[in-house]
Structures are given as structure tokens and as C-alpha cells.
Amino acid sequence: MTVGLFIPCYVNQFYPQAAIATLQLLQKLGVEVVYPPRQTCCGQPMANSGFEHLTQDCNRLFLENFSDFDYIVAPSASCVLHVKQHLHAPTNPALAERTRSRVYELVEFLTDVLKVDNLTARFPHRVGIHQSCHGLRGLYLAQMSELNASPFSKPVQLLNMVDGLELVDLDRPDECCGFGGTFCVAEEAVSVKMGKDRVTDHVKNGAEYITSVDLSCLMHLEGILHRNKSAVKAVHIAEILNATV
Amino acid sequence: MEKSTKDHAALAEAFNQDEEHVNWHDGALWWIRQKRDIAAKNIPEWEQLRETASRIKSNVLSNLHDYLLEFEANLTKNGVTVHWAADAEEHNRIVYSILKAKEITQMIKSKSMLTEECHLNEYLIERGIDVINSDLGEYIQQLDNEPPSHIVLPCIHKRKEEIGEIFHEHLGTEKGVSDPTTLTRFARWHLRDAFISRRAALTGVNFAVAETGEYVVCTNEGNADMGAHLSDIQIASMGIEKIIPKKEHLGVFLRLLARSATGQPITIYSSHFKKPRPGQEMHLVLVDLGRSRQLGRPDFRDSLKCIKCGACMNTCPVYRKSGGLSYHNTISGPIGAILAPNLDMKRHADLPFASTLCGSCSNVCPVKINIHDQLYQWRQVIVQEGYAANTKVLGMKAMAWTLSSPGSYSTIGRAGRWVLNNIPFAVNNKFNPWYKQREMPDGPKESFGEWYAKNQGDNGSEKV
């Protein structure tokens, strides 16, 4: 099994430590991982702004880089969801379809494909999970609070394997943080208010760390934490699952 | 609100000037969302009910023409006069002509978002007809000369103290009185007088049953009934999408409506109106107002399944933190944002962007409208139709160019990180909306791609 490592554009530039943790974690679990160096972006920032028609080049590049792998794994639910829903190839729709079906967010790859049942990770801290909306309601990584359906959570399943980690219960377990792509600047006031309220929920309930399957949410929450000089830190779930100290 | 030229972002920013008020508004609506959750989870077959309701509405939308004619025939048989209106102007003209024929100059009206959409009150008042809204929330909004901010809870953005002020100013209550029971008693006293004295009453319609020609009006206050039962002329206005095929389908919708709206098992009054009592005249106006245009849009037709419960508003964090009036449309919130562009795409081009696409709206929707997918689709349509700002078009083209080639992307990525590290003031300034209330991310020395090239071999084997 060879996994193509898909590192979204802003993770590559701003959060290399999360990408390194993803790579090391997969290697630790015995997976052969290759990072195609010519990758850029899935095209989501344009598409969510109404410019999906400008994403053909991103689609072409994505297929060039990834269509040969058995699996494609990324530490970002949002980008994975975009690829799953919107990766198209007008001249080779079958190739696009096959590629779409092989893309996984890191957590679901660990729980559903590798079926990981134990980890040698240690993170002795109180952690609040920020459910990324695209991970939750797009990829169904956990049960959604709106539905009358049985509870489950793939991130919790993995975090429960981490030594010393204590999960924190939140007042609103799956409310959006307000990042929303270009929404975060186009609707600055509401975006920040939503982010502040999420941060308050975690802080109030005693979290030392806020973790998520999406760094875009975390970048937004971290920006608010840093502005408020908070001691609470934002950390990608891969860094916790790969932590040994 | 309807005359405002500000977009959602600007109106929402103004709403956020008073953070304590935003917290209160957010909390009040979140409390209703929680009540809705409890009600939904008390019914084991809840998800099946939603699916059933959605399918009944699919059937309605695919056979609307036939059901409307069946409904009209049965109404006529029952002695109700049926009118058809293509748009707001025609609807208002019909209502006015009914009143004028009987020389009626005063009308009482229960909650009807359709008549808000049509601006019926303004139309009638200009022609010398006095209209009073009998739903308490709408009555308060009417006194304050503001449109409703929420389709179920029209004045949810107002605190009781503000309402006390309005009552003091318009109804002469004692200054400083804000006790809800006292204020409600006062409003009731005023409204009772109107119910008794007004010869004409207009109601909205929640569900119209094609097979029987009856219609159902759901309220908690009984105000629609009081108006209708005491009237000589009873008028109902309904959008053509409110049809359901059979009476047996009502159970599905009545179980969903109040639970989704407020967490109640059922509305206090679910009143069936079928035929005029002796001496009374009943009229029903079927209004299109853009519905058939929306029906012709394959990506958006399902928006017409809406039963106006307001659950998508209560759950929407953007709605809760921006207030219904920020949407500058009668129907606000997520459902409003997918209905409004159909009515006037240029005017409402901002609304599909007033969302993070979090998807909570689609999950609470009792008729399973894929609201967040439609928001995404509307964004594509609005850009294709040329309603995006030029600066945004240029920005997106530049972004697409940068990301289309690994070379330009890594050069710009390196440059960006260098700026963050070396001249942070170039981005950390008032021209950057991100920086206003948030720090920028740190600019690491090395991207992951650069680290990988150094530390891992071409075949993925580790060098370090």
C-alpha cells in the first residue's frame, strides 16, 4: 500500500509541523508514504467563493500528482471534502471518480482503512475537540448533534488511545468556529465573534489545548488566542497522535 | 430594512457593536435549538418523519399544477372564492378590491410572511385601509415600524425593556414597565378591541390540502382564529408551494413543524378552515411571486419544500450572531439566503456568502432541504451572472494563477512567510481584516515541502 501525502497549500506554508507529524505517524504505522512535491492546492478557496470554474488547473495538477496512488491522505478534512465533492476531469471522468474515492482525511484513514486499535502516543493534557464542520457534517467523522442517531466519534476513538490525555466536554460540542474560507475576512465581525465564542467554551471548560482535524479552523482560533495572549494552545490532531513526550 | 443599501457584512458588523446584546440574542436562539433537539430526540422515528415529509414535498413539486387545480376545484365547491396572483402587486390589488367592494376600511391580519414579502400593509395603508397585525411579535414590529427579523419569532432581536419602551411610546403604558405578562395583557386588551370591531380578517396558510380544499393555520396565540371567526370577510393568502396532496399527510407535517420551530409537540392551535359560515365570505389568494421561476431551477427547486419553521435560523451561528435584519429580506437566515437571490439576484447577491457552509441548517431542516449545498451553488450562479465585485474577480484570478503552477505557488509561499517573519507590519495593519481582531499565523522558516526535500529521500526513505 502506497499513500500519496496530500498537504494542503496553507498547511505546507504555515503549519509544516502538522504535516511532519502526519508523515511520521503514518510511517510509524508501517505505511509507505510519498509526498509528490509538485502539489499546490485543491482549489477550495476559489470554489467556495463562487469561482469553481477557475479550479480546472488545480484539478489537473491534483490528478497529475495523485491519481496513481492506492490512497491519498491529508491532515485536513475541509480540503479532502472539497476533493471528494468537486474534483473533476472533463476529458477523463473515470479517473477523477476513482481518485475522488481514494482520498481520505487522516483520522478516517487511521480508523477506517488502517483500523488502528492502539497508539504509542503520550499527551498528558486536557484537550478540547473542535469539530470541523466539513469533517463532521461532510465526512461524518462523528455523529452530528442535530440528528436523532447513535453517537460515535472517530477523533475521540483515536484520542482515547493517547496516554495521559483528558478530553474536555464542551457546552456546544459541534458549533462552527466561523472561519469559513473567505468568510473570515469578508464577514470579519461575525467570523471573529463566532471564533471568540468557541474559544470561550473551551477555556471555560478547562481545555489546555484545542485540537481539530482542520488547521483552517485552528489558524482562526489560534489567531484569537494569540491576540488575547491566552495560554491555551491550538494543535492539530496529528501532532497529538504522534506525540511521545 | 428593505430600503437599506448596506450588505449583510456591514449590517452584521453594526449588530456586533453591542457584544452583550449579541450574546443575549445568540443564547436565546440557542436555547430554542436545544428545545428542538430534545423534542426531536423524543421521537424514535424522527429521521424517518423528515424523510417522509421531504418525499411528500418532492411529489408536490413535481405535480404542483395538478394539485393546485384540484385544490381550486375543491375550494370552489366548498364556497370559497379563489384568486390567482402572479406577483406582489397583483396580490395586493386583489386584497384591496375585496375590501373596497364591501367598503371596509379596517382589517386584522394574523402572521403571514407572504404578505410581508408583498408589503401588503404599506399598500393598503396608502389606500386608506388600516391594518393591524394580531400576532404579538408582529404587532410589536408594526408599532416599531420594523419588519420581522425572524419568521417564527418576529421580534426575537428585541429585549423586553425595548418592548416596554415601544409600548410606553405607542400604547401609553407606564414608563419603565417591562414585565412580559403585564405587556402582553396590555397588547391583548388593545387587540381584543380590534378583533371585535374589524369586519375583515386575513390569515396566512401553513398547509393547503388539495383533496379536501381546506387549509390549516398554525398559531400559538389563537389570533388567527379570533380574527377569522369574528369576520364577515375572511381572506387567506398563500404561496403556491404550500399545497399537500391529502389530509392524511397533515400528521407528518404537524408533528414536524412545532418541534422544529420551538420544541413544542404541536402548535397550540392548528385550525382547519374549509367553508364560510352563513353570511360570511371566504377568499383565498394563490400567489406565485417567483415560486414557479424557482421551480424551474433544478439546483434550487427543493427550497420550495420549506414549511417556514425557522429551525435553520435558530441553529445558524451566523444568524444568531448577526440578527435577522442583517439579511435585508423578509425571509432571513439560511433559507432566506437561498430564496432571496431568486427574487432579485443583484440585490441579494451577498446573502449566499453570509454563511460558513457549516451545514447545520440542512441537518435540522424538517423537510431535508440541502440548504448549505444550495448556498454553494448560488455562489457559483451569482459569480457567473456577473454579480461579484471586480476586486474579488481579480483576486480570485490571481489566486487561481498562483495555485495553477508549483513554481509560482512555492515562490509566493516563500515570499509570504518571509514577509511575516521580516516585515510583519506589511500585513499586520488596519487594511488586513484578519489582523483587526486576530494575530496572523507565524511564518515558519521552512515549508513542509522544503523540509521534506531536505530530510526525506526521493523515494520517501528517511535521510535523518
Written account of the structure:
The complex is a heterodimer of chains A (245) and B (464). Helices cover 46% and strands 11% of the residues of chain A. Chain A has 13 helices and eight strands. Chain A has helices at 9-14, 16-28, 44-48, 56-66, 77-86, 93-101, 106-113, 133-138, 154-159, 183-186, 188-204, 215-227, 237-241, and strands at residues 2-5, 32-34, 71-74, 103-105, 126-129, 166-167, 209-212, 233-236. In chain A, the strands form two sheets. In chain A, strands 2-1-3-4 form a four-stranded parallel β-sheet, sandwiched between helices. In chain A, strands 6-5-7-8 form a four-stranded parallel β-sheet. In chain A, helix 11 (188-204) packs across helix 12 (215-227). Chain A is globular, with a radius of gyration of 17 Å. The model of chain A has no long low-confidence stretch (mean pLDDT 97). By secondary structure, chain B is α/β, with parallel strands linked by helices. Among the domains of chain B are: 43-289, NagB/RpiA/CoA transferase-like (Rossmann fold), CATH 3.40.50; 394-455, no CATH class. Chain B has helices at residues 8-15, 19-41, 46-62, 64-77, 88-101, 113-118, 120-126, 136-143, 160-171, 180-197, 223-229, 250-261, 291-295, 311-315, 317-320, 333-343, 360-364, 371-384, 390-404, 406-422, 433-437, 448-455, and strands at residues 81-85, 106-109, 130-133, 200-203, 207-209, 214-219, 233-239, 243-244, 269-273, 281-287. In chain B, the strands form two sheets. In chain B, strands 1-10-7-4-2-3 form a six-stranded parallel β-sheet, sandwiched between helices. In chain B, strands 8-5-6-9 form a four-stranded mixed β-sheet. The termini of chain B are far apart. The mean pLDDT of chain B is 94. The chains are: A alpha/beta (245), B alpha/beta (464). The interface between A and B is large, with 77 and 79 residues. Chain A: InterPro entries: Cys_rich_dom. Chain A: One of its GO terms (cellular component) is cytosol. Chain A: Residues 3-83, 127-221 form the Cysteine-rich domain. Chain A: This is (Fe-S)-binding protein. Chain A: GO terms for molecular function: oxidoreductase activity.
